[in-house]
# Entry
Amino acid sequence: MTFKKILFAALYVWCTTLYAQKPTEVPKPSEKPIDLSNPADIIIYIVLPLCVVLLFFVWRGKRKNRKK
# Structure
């Protein structure tokens, strides 16, 4: 009796994943490379990550100095 319940549950899960759809409203990733002639791309992909890394090292240095 429990084998039938487990089999039914497995079959139900398999069928629901089989008929699942990809959402249409979700933006899809772009297949184009980054356009470095666009200032927004330069800021988002180069300047902001460099600022985050720089601020991390400054914060870590200040934290080490406080412990000494």
